[in-house]
Model the fold of this input.
Amino acid sequence: MRKNRLAVVGALAAVLVAVTGPAGVAHDEPPTLADLAQRHGRYFGSATDNPELTDAPYVSLLGSEFDQITPGNGMKWYATEPQQGVFDFSQGDEIVDLARANHQKVRGHTLVWHSQLPDWLTGREWKAGELRAVLKKHIQTEVRHYRGKVFAWDVVNEAFNEDGTYRDTIFYRTLGPGYIADALRWAHQADPRVKLYLNDYNIESVGPKSDAYYRLAKELRAQGVPLHGIGLQAHLALQYGYPATLEDNLRRFSRLGLETALTEVDIRMYLPADEEKLATQAEWYGDLTEACLAVRRCVGITLWDYTDKYSWIPAFFEGEGAALPWDEELRPKPAYYAIRDALK
Ligand code: 9MR
Done:
C-alpha cells in the first residue's frame, strides 16, 4: 500500500515536471518589482525608447520586471506631428503594442512641452488664435489615437521655472497661463476616462516650484478643470541631497484629491561610481519608494529607463551617470535590492 502510494506520488511528480517544464522553476524566482508593488496597489514601471527595442536581453527584463512603461520620446510632438496636420503614431504604437504583449500599462508622455517640438511649430510667429487651434488639434488627435491605450497623460510638462514663475514658452508667451487649463479641458474631451497630469522636475521637495504647482492645482480644481494628478519626475543627484520633504509634499497634493506619481526617477552621481556612492543611491531609492507607499494616492513609480546602458544622464551631464538600479550589463545594483526591501 505504502509502496503504491509512493509510486503514485512519484508518477504525479513526473507528470507535473513534464507539464510545467521550466515554468516550475519560476516558483523559485524572486517576485518582480511589479509583483511587489502590486501588493500595495501601486505600479512599478520604466521608461523605454524605440531604438532600444532591438536589444533582446534588455527587452526581456523590461517585459518581466515592470508592469508599466512610458515612451521616453515616441509620443512627443516632434515625433507625432512632424509636419503640421500630418500625424505619425508609429513610435508610440510600437511601445503600446509591446506593453500590451507584456500586460503592462502605459503612461502617455507628453502633449504640451517647450522641448522637442517640430521645426514647423518653433520656426515662425503665431497669432494666439492660430496657435490655440494648432494646440487643440495636436492634443485631441493624439489623445483620441491613444484612447483606451494609455491610462494617464502628462498633459503639460515642465510649465514652471525654479522660482515658481511660469516658464516662458511659445505657449505661455502666445496664449498666456490659461493654456494649461485649456490643454486639460481639450484632453478630457478627447478621452474622458484618462487621468490627466501636470509633470515637472525639481518639485519633489516643498519649495517655490512645487508651491507653484500646489497653488495652480488648487485653483484648477476649484474651477472644475479636469486635473487628476501631479507627476514628480524625481531626477535626483547625490550632490544635491535627498528631498527630505518628499513625503509631506506628496501628502499635500493628495489632500487636494489629486493622485501623485514619481514619473521619471533616476539618481545620478559623479563618475566613477564607488561602493559608498552606490550605497547612498540605494538608500535614496529605498526612501523614495517608501515615501510613495506611505501616501495614499501616490499611485506608482517609474524609472527613467532601468539600466545605465540607456540612461539619458551621461549625454546631458558631463562626468555624471550610474543613475539607475541596473548597471550597463543589466546586472542589478544595490539600488535594486533597496527598492525590493522597501516594497516588501
Ligand atoms: O529621455 C529623453 C531623452 O532621450 C531625450 O534626449 C531628452 C530630450 O530633452 O528627453 C528625455 O526625457 C525627458 C522627459 O521627456 C522630460 N523630463 C526630462 C527628461 C530627461 O531630459
